[in-house]
């Protein structure tokens, strides 16, 4: 009985704080993007520019959650990559299904030459930024561990800037 009373008192004690917590996190939970809300800032400037900020992780990399063809995908922003690149399993998850014969484009990577398939991502979203008809490459899963957001996507932005450990994307 004492355990029940303690649990009841605990819930009575936190009840006044619940509205503030729910108000703070409900939009992110509804969007399925709680990690992005913690690590990035989304805003629009008075001129109508859409911005999204991504803080560097502990390795100094810019990683965030993107909506790719409506599916949530964690991607590494790579300004050194010419194309946006998806592992084959992620490509399938977002509705891109290259055939074996499509893997005909030689790609030089740090691990040697691999073959990729050209694809088009219909739509991508991060925060308020919307991109359409992105050229992309699909690589076999063993050739690429994490999806990369490359210059084929970044070139569709008005600009991007890195300062003080934060990447700012502006559209």
TrEMBL record:
InterPro entries: Aspartic_peptidase_AS, Clan_AA_Asp_peptidase_C, Peptidase_A2_cat, Peptidase_aspartic_dom_sf, Retropepsin-like_bacterial. GO terms for molecular function: peptidase activity. SUPFAM superfamilies: Acid proteases. It comes from the Bacteria. It holds the Pfam family gag-asp_proteas. One of its GO terms (biological process) is proteolysis. Its EC number is 3.4.23.-. Keywords: Hydrolase, Protease. Residues 73-88 form the Peptidase A2 domain. NCBIfam families: clan_AA_DTGA. This is TIGR02281 family clan AA aspartic protease. It comes from Roseibium porphyridii.
């Amino acid at each position: 009985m004492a355990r029940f009373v303690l649990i009841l008192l605990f819930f009575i004690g936190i009840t006044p704080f619940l509205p503030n917590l729910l108000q703070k996190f409900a939009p992110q939970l509804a969007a399925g993007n709680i990690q992005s809300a913690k690590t990035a800032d989304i805003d629009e400037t008075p001129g109508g520019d859409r911005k999204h900020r991504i803080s560097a992780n502990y390795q100094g990399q810019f990683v965030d959650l993107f909506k790719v063809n409506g599916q949530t995908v964690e991607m590494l922003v790579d300004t050194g990559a010419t194309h946006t690149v998806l592992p084959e399993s992620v490509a399938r998850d977002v509705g891109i299904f290259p055939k074996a014969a499509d893997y005909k484009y030689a790609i030089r990577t740090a691990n040697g030459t691999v073959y990729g398939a050209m694809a088009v991502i219909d739509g991508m979203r991060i925060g308020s930024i919307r991109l359409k008809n992105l050229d992309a490459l699909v690589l076999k899963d063993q050739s690429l561990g994490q999806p990369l957001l490359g210059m084929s996507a970044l070139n569709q932005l008005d600009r991007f800037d890195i300062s003080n450990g934060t990447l700012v994307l502006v559209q």
